[in-house]
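ok new one. same drill as before - structure tokens go in, u give me an amino acid for every spot. 160 of them this time. try not to just spam alanines like last time pls lmao
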């Protein structure tokens, strides 16, 4: 069984069986600040690697990013209900109207870390996927927003 055959939300549930008690043990032993620092470093490294794998599998442009949204994040096995607003060669705009990841972290008693464990992956993933694409997001459901507003853009060429 490869990673692609396990749904994205199911992967998070599997990870959680190890992650939740590990985080609790780290908090007890090292405190919240040190635990969050370790989590941030882990999430960054893992997400960049996931982005590179996704670029190989789906293609590293906006079309590949759209496939990730449709096939991994949304769709069967995904954790997001997505409303695509615009998709072109230069941009991908969508809103997440339901986030099962937020529901999952709340169920686990980790709402305070949900953004760091899940939402922060998005920016880091882009580093491995295609560093010529940027993400702007002003709100997330995980942090109490009405939706998650994803706005992906091709970066403007630098004027050197």
């Amino acid at each position: 069984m490869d990673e692609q055959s396990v749904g994205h939300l199911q992967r998070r549930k599997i990870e959680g069986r190890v992650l939740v008690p590990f985080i609790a043990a780290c908090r007890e032993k090292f405190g919240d600040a040190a635990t969050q620092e370790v989590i941030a470093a882990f999430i960054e490294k893992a997400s960049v690697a996931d982005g590179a794998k996704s670029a190989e599998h789906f293609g590293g442009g906006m079309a590949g990013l759209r496939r990730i949204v449709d096939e991994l994040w949304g769709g069967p096995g995904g954790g997001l209900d997505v409303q695509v607003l615009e998709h072109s060669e230069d941009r991908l705009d969508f809103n997440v109207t339901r986030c099962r990841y937020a529901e999952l972290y709340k169920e686990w008693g980790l709402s305070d870390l949900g953004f760091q464990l899940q939402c922060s992956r998005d920016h880091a993933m882009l580093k491995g996927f295609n560093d010529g694409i940027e993400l702007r997001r002003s709100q997330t459901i995980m942090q109490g927003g009405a939706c998650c507003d994803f706005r992906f853009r091709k970066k403007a060429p630098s004027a050197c």
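The beta strands are 80-87, 91-99, 133-136, 148-154. and btw Residues 133 and 154 are 4 Å apart (CA to CA).
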